[in-house]
Amino acid sequence: MFGTTFYHGTTKKLIIAFGSVFNNLHVMRREADGTLIKDIKIPLAYESRKKYLARLIQDSRKNKEVPRMGFIMSGMEADFSRAGNQMNEYRFSHNDADKAYKLYSPIPYNWTFTLDIYVDYMDDGLQIVEQILPYFQPDFNCVIEEIPELDMKRDIPIELTGIALTDEFEGDFGDHRVVNWALDFVVKGWIYPPIREQGVIKTVQTNYMVNFFTGNLDEHPDEQVNLTIDPFTADVTDNWTVKIEAGHPDNPDDDTDVDTMHEVNWPLGND
What we know:
- The chain is mainly β.
- It has 2 domains: 10-196, Myoviridae tail sheath stabiliser (STM4215-like); 201-264, no CATH class.
- The protein has helices at residues 10-21, 49-58, 122-132; strands spanning 26-30, 36-41, 44-46, 68-78, 89-93, 99-104, 107-119, 139-147, 152-170, 176-191, 196-199, 203-208, 223-230, 241-247, 262-264.
- A hairpin with a 5-residue loop joins strand 9 and strand 10.
- The mean pLDDT is 82.
């Protein structure tokens, strides 16, 4: 089972996709009469709440970096309620004329993420949260290119599972106020096994024997049908036809045997 080195980068792709969902959020600062003062694009980083608060305590200037957001993947577990037949095979052709690929069914996994929103003012946090919540009912789909070399893409649901709000002070004598919204998500993705490479079948030979059930299976066939890709060097994306030959093949052990194999016209192909 083990010994095949492979890496599809699935978790890395899901982390990038999750972050891209929240990388274009803004907060509008306005006067009491509604006049726009400032349009702030919210910075987003891959960091835990614990790490951010530790930096905030060490350097008071970090308090000026809000509003900001951080997210982290906290874990993953198999979700066999979404599993299908694990013995199903997906077969693919590629741009190599002599190779094909097969892939067994992927394993469904759930990844848990937390998105933290840090603000100085409650209204900033409310603006950000209100821009997020309407899109999760309860999930939001994003497209992941799971295996680019096989052009495999899938819609991945991101489900919002929880919302928490804290308003606290960090540091000596409560130097730093932190208003923190924590949004919990589950990303429902798939882990793929290794891709197996195999040859492409370009020739099929079928032998017919009149005395199949009563005779010797080692005897020479009475009739034969051969199917061959033409040209034999054709790629899956090329134009090709199927060359068919049928008849009685020559028996090298019988000097009186007559070879009647001939080409049969049949409109098969990929034109």
